[in-house]
Write a structure and sequence with these properties.
This protein is of the alpha/beta class. Helix content is 42%, strand content 14%. Strands 1-7-6-9-8 form a five-stranded mixed beta sheet, covered by helices on one side. A hairpin with a 5-residue loop joins strand 6 and strand 7 (258-263). The longest helix is centred in the first third of the chain and has 23 residues, at 99-121. It is globular.
């Protein structure tokens, strides 16, 4: 399967030019004034670097959306323990494939962001946790690290200063749960990837029980541009509380699927119809997932929403990893939800009873409904089970499994009732019926 193409708007995006000019190689990045932002940051007080990033409104782009600069400020300055920076490259949210682009085409941009972030929190060691399936990205990232050491950009005297920084790659084993920051830290320590109870939060007690900041690849890759052009420039590109651009992975039944770098706050309708070319075959849009498989779906009349964290939260969904999945009028939403639920059941680590048992229970009910054995009480039982998982687990995987169920049954209840009443699947405008499993 070919890798999705990268697109941007008429302004050219922020990271796209670096990716297109192959800034995974040092010689190419230096031609674009690479590492000038790091030199600037190394000459500034750490507090000033944190302030620049905070005022830019850069938020965590792995899914949580927490303000990046504010997160850095939580590292205790008087702690005698070593501080660590960990880059989360365990990209595994279904429908999301953006971090891979940054690593493949702009590995040195990421490395420069790492230097700036590490300097801001006074860390001298950084680990990049890359998911196991990303073989080529891991090789390219290691090649960039080797180039940086040889050029004395990393090591004992970063860019000719007395600041020291070592960067290591750690390969994951492909478990979805290891994208959760505390499970990632457990895995990095060589243990089973089980999430930890919070608090304490990683900024206080993270890797090896020391203060640690875990940031996503895309988040850190935007930091050099903020340092070069200033926080005002980045903040003005987005919405009031969401600065800059970001990557949106658009897949499903659209004419032009791909990864799009667009200003935060671009409407979902603009993305689907102006950039992604509309719904395939001229069909109607039935539903759309705006932020990866864990986000509640939206109905067609909701796609004028701005694609930022706050606007989507206001209508009961979330931006998450910005993995947009469009579904046309022929899509069986019961089938779609069962695939989603089965994924979370399979990926549950089993540590929390509500998640371990609840995801399996939901999977069994949906599978039975899809086979024609649905009961009317299923339509009420499914949200009840999801609510029993929601908020009752150590990590967000339980919520990630529950939210789609709650969303589908709230906004498309009539379709699930039809399945339960008739034992059959319907398509489009409820005019054509076919046996369950073939919708």
């Amino acid at each position: 399967m070919p890798f999705p193409k990268l697109f941007t708007d008429n302004n050219g995006g922020i990271l796209t030019p670096y990716i297109n000019q192959e800034c995974n190689e040092l010689k190419n990045y230096l031609k674009l004034e690479g590492y000038e932002a790091a030199k600037k940051a190394l000459a500034m007080p750490a507090e000033q670097v944190i302030d620049e990033v905070t005022r830019s409104n850069l938020r965590g782009l792995g899914g949580a959306g927490f303000p990046a600069g504010r997160k850095w400020s939580f590292i205790p300055k008087d702690s005698p323990k070593p501080k660590y920076l960990v880059i989360n490259a365990d990209e595994s949210e279904p429908g999301t494939c953006k971090d891979k682009y940054v690593i493949l085409g702009a590995a040195h941009v990421l490395l420069e962001g790492i230097i700036i972030a590490a300097r801001a929190i006074n860390a001298h060691t950084c680990y990049i946790y890359i998911r196991g399936e990303y073989v080529e990205p891991a090789q390219i990232m290691q090649s960039a690290i080797d180039e940086a050491y040889e050029a004395k950009i990393l090591g004992k005297n970063v860019l000719g200063t007395d600041y020291a920084l070592d960067v290591y790659i750690h390969r994951g084993a492909g478990a979805y749960i290891c994208g959760e920051e505390t499970a990632l830290l457990e895995s990095l320590e060589g243990k089973r990837g089980w999430p930890r109870m919070k608090p304490p939060f990683p900024a206080i007690e993270g890797l090896f029980r020391s203060p640690t900041i875990v940031n996503n690849v895309e988040t850190i890759a935007y930091v050099p541009m903020i340092m070069n052009k200033g926080w005002e420039w980045f903040a003005k590109l987005g919405t009031e509380r969401n600065g800059g651009y970001r990557f949106y992975s658009i897949s499903g039944h659209v004419n032009r699927p791909g990864v799009y770098e667009l200003p935060v706050g671009t409407t979902l309708r603009t993305m689907l119809y102006d950039y992604a070319g509309g719904i395939r075959g001229g069909k109607k849009l039935k539903a759309v997932i705006p932020g990866g498989s864990s986000s509640p779906p939206l109905r067609p009349e909701e796609i004028d929403v701005k694609m930022d964290f706050d606007s989507l939260a206001a209508i009961g969904s979330m931006l998450g990893s910005a993995g947009i999945i469009a579904m046309d009028e022929d899509t069986c939403l019961l089938d779609m939800l069962m695939v989603t639920t089965r994924f979370y059941h399979h990926e549950s680590c089993g540590q929390c009873t509500p998640c371990r048992e609840g995801t399996g229970w939901m999977d069994k009910i949906l599978n039975r409904m899809l086979r024609g054995g649905g009961r009317l009480e299923d339509v009420n039982n499914m949200p009840d089970i999801a609510n029993g998982i929601m908020g009752n687990t150590i990590c967000p995987l339980g919520d990630a499994a529950a939210m789609p169920v709650l969303g589908y049954f709230k906004k498309f209840r009539e379709e699930f009732e039809s399945h339960a009443k008739t034992g059959k699947c319907h398509t489009g405008e409820f005019t054509s019926w076919k046996p369950a499993g073939k919708g």
